[in-house]
Amino acid sequence: MLVPELRQLRAFVAVAEELNFTRAAERLFLGQQAVSKSIGQLERELGVRLLERTTHEVRLTRAGAELLRAGREALKAADTAFERARLVGRGQAGSIQVGISPAIGPTERAWVVRALREDGDDLEISLRDLRPEQALQGLRNGELELALARTAPTMTNGLDSASLPSIRAHLYAPANHRLAGLRTPISLASLDGERLLVWSPRGTPLTDLIISRIAAAGASVETVLARVWGMAVALADLAELGAVAVLPPRWPLHESVVELPLADDLELPLTLLWRAGTRPASVERILAATA
């Protein structure tokens, strides 16, 4: 048994509603002969007459009236499905899982969300705080559509990446710290001898980047590995450890912690990662927002 095509149903509904082949053809932007041919094929495949044609009028048969009723709903459902697929494919609807390094600050997170939701009010975005190695695994197995990290990992087999605008770092210190009362931006040189709170050990890209910039300013610091992960509580043990931290601006402040501007231009890089061989609409949206 042949299965009728959607184009045939669309032609039939147009004729059934207009009861006129000429008007239906104009509505569909088709020739009248093409419309007549589609309906003729539909009737043969169904094995029933749908329309009664005379030289003066077109009337629906009982089978035609039933198909018109159900056909309208079928076309509406099909059009809805096609439009939904189009929106999802363009990154304007559906859901996106985004891996976020814990070192990405709130300003950057908000910017990414705005970029993804440009013309995409129906898009659901889930930001998942993951260590870089977890994010890479999520990209490779398809759990994540994209990820944001401070630096591109050294092992990026199967992944593509692009650099995004960097952000200027700020200094965070306990409220009773010697630098907390200064009214001018803090120089990196003034961190000499301080304990620096880090979330990855020496030998990892971001930690080494910050330490090298401090060293270039003539200062030496002792790194202290954080005991608490997660943006909301990342500075929880700053005062207890007697340390300072270099992070993006507007980081959520824990009790008795202050945010201080840096005099030196210490830029924290930002990298976008996605699975190689793909180019999701979400990636295009973020890259377009940086243009």
Which secondary structure elements does this structure contain, and how are they paired or packed?
Elements: H1 6-18, H2 21-28, H3 32-46, E1 51-53, E2 58-60, H4 62-89, E3 93-100, H5 106-116, E4 122-129, H6 132-140, E5 146-149, E6 159-168, E7 170-174, E8 195-198, H7 205-216, E9 222-225, H8 238-241, E10 245-247, E11 257-261, E12 267-275, H9 281-290
Helix pairs in contact: 1-2, 1-3, 1-4, 2-3
Quick description:
This protein is α/β, with parallel strands linked by helices and 291 residues long. The chain has helices at residues 6-18, 21-28, 32-46, 62-89, 106-116, 132-140, 205-216, 238-241, 281-290; strands at residues 51-53, 58-60, 93-100, 122-129, 146-149, 159-168, 170-174, 195-198, 222-225, 245-247, 257-261, 267-275.
What report would you give on this structure?
- The model has no long low-confidence stretch (mean pLDDT 90).
- The strands form four sheets. Strands 4-3-5-12-6 form a five-stranded mixed sheet, with helices on both faces. Strands 10-7-11 form a three-stranded antiparallel sheet, with no helix packed on it.
- The chain folds into three domains: 6-89, Winged helix-like DNA-binding domain superfamily/Winged helix DNA-binding domain (Arc Repressor Mutant, subunit A, Orthogonal Bundle), CATH 1.10.10.10; 93-165 and 269-290, D-Maltodextrin-Binding Protein, domain 2 (3-Layer(aba) Sandwich); 170-265, Periplasmic binding protein-like II (D-Maltodextrin-Binding Protein, domain 2).
- It contains nine helices and twelve strands.
- The chain has 291 residues and is of the alpha/beta class.
